[in-house]
């Protein structure tokens, strides 16, 4: 019991930045809290926290121990919740990060159904067009468009492959004409996603032929919704993953350009921390999302 108390005290002290506040949360005296922390450091033969009258901070080994202990306590609380409910009923906050476009189009519309199914779960969507460090940012899972994760502590589960397409509004194409060849793009207004790999370089392939060209952007943005709005307003030809513009193409608001050529395809994945036992809320949301993508047949729609 003392070991669990020591670990819980250590984690709360690190999170709150105060031994006094941690002691208050655990309903123990400052003297008792100090003894527990000293006992933990003595048992580990390592200094975990540097403390003075003015500030408190974790040592390097303390940072490493904190991350492990935080995960351990989280799993313990999840296990207790499961036992007390006598079922694997998910609870707590699920934090998901994805691009703004994916969050708007494919996360936010699903949350009502998920939270109705699991009412004890609340969802926090972190919409960002950059990749957060899952281990250090309190993220449960991330939706990403890359084949692998450089961190071996992460597990990747594939959702769907998709094409990147060029598309423009009928109004723009009436005014500027439909490009018939790749070289024709040089005379068109291009709407470019600035976070893409080599955003102003497009590599097309068809059959055994491959051709790379450089394009000049009329508008660059780090968000696909900005480019989509510009394209819908007739500003130019965008280059975006098909999941962003699929509905616009089906409705005729945007028209594919040079659709017989293929750009390098993307794979949308779920990335999450590798654990022997995932928290129920994380595991169930992953299965929920995978099932939804399968039912909607997104890969077929986005690769044709």
UniProtKB/TrEMBL annotation:
Keyword Transcription attached: yes
Keyword flag tRNA processing: no
Gene Ontology BP, a term: DNA-templated transcription
GO molecular function annotations of the record: DNA-binding transcription factor activity; sequence-specific DNA binding
Lineage top rank: taxon: Bacteria
Keywords: DNA-binding, Plasmid, Transcription, Transcription regulation
Membrane-spanning segments: none
Domain HTH lysR-type per the UniProt entry, residue ranges: 1-59
InterPro entries associated with the record: LysR-type_TF_proteobact-type (IPR058163), LysR_HTH_N (IPR000847), LysR_subst-bd (IPR005119), WH-like_DNA-bd_sf (IPR036388), WH_DNA-bd_sf (IPR036390)
Stated family: Belongs to the LysR transcriptional regulatory family.
Identification of the protein by name: LysR family transcriptional regulator
Organism the protein comes from: Cupriavidus taiwanensis
């Amino acid at each position: 019991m003392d070991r669990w108390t020591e670990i819980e005290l250590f984690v709360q002290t690190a999170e709150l930045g105060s031994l006094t506040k941690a002691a208050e949360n655990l309903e123990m005296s400052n003297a008792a809290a100090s003894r527990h922390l000293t006992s933990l450091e003595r048992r580990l033969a390592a200094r975990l926290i540097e403390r003075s009258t003015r500030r408190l901070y974790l040592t390097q080994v303390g940072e490493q121990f904190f991350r492990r202990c935080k995960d351990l306590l989280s799993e313990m609380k999840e296990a207790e919740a499961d036992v007390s409910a006598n079922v694997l009923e998910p609870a707590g906050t699920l934090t998901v990060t994805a691009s703004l476009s994916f969050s708007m189009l494919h996360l936010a519309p699903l949350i009502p159904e998920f939270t109705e199914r699991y009412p004890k779960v609340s969802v926090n969507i972190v919409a960002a067009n950059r990749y957060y460090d899952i281990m250090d940012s309190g993220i449960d899972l991330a939706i990403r468009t890359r084949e692998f994760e450089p961190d071996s502590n992460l597990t990747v589960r594939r959702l769907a492959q998709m094409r990147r397409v060029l598309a423009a509004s009928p109004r723009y194409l009436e005014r500027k004409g439909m490009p018939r060849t790749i070289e024709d793009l040089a005379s068109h207004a291009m709407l470019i996603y600035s976070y893409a790999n080599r955003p102003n370089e497009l590599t097309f392939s068809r059959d055994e032929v491959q051709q790379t060209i450089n394009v000049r952007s009329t508008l660059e943005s780090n968000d696909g919704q900005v480019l989509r709005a510009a394209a819908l307003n007739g500003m130019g030809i965008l280059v975006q993953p098909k999941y962003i513009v699929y509905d616009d193409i089906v409705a005729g608001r945007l028209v594919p350009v040079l659709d017989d050529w293929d750009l390098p395809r993307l794979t949308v994945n779920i990335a999450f921390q590798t654990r022997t036992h995932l928290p129920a809320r994380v595991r169930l949301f992953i299965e929920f999302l995978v099932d939804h993508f399968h039912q909607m047949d997104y890969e077929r729609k986005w690769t044709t």
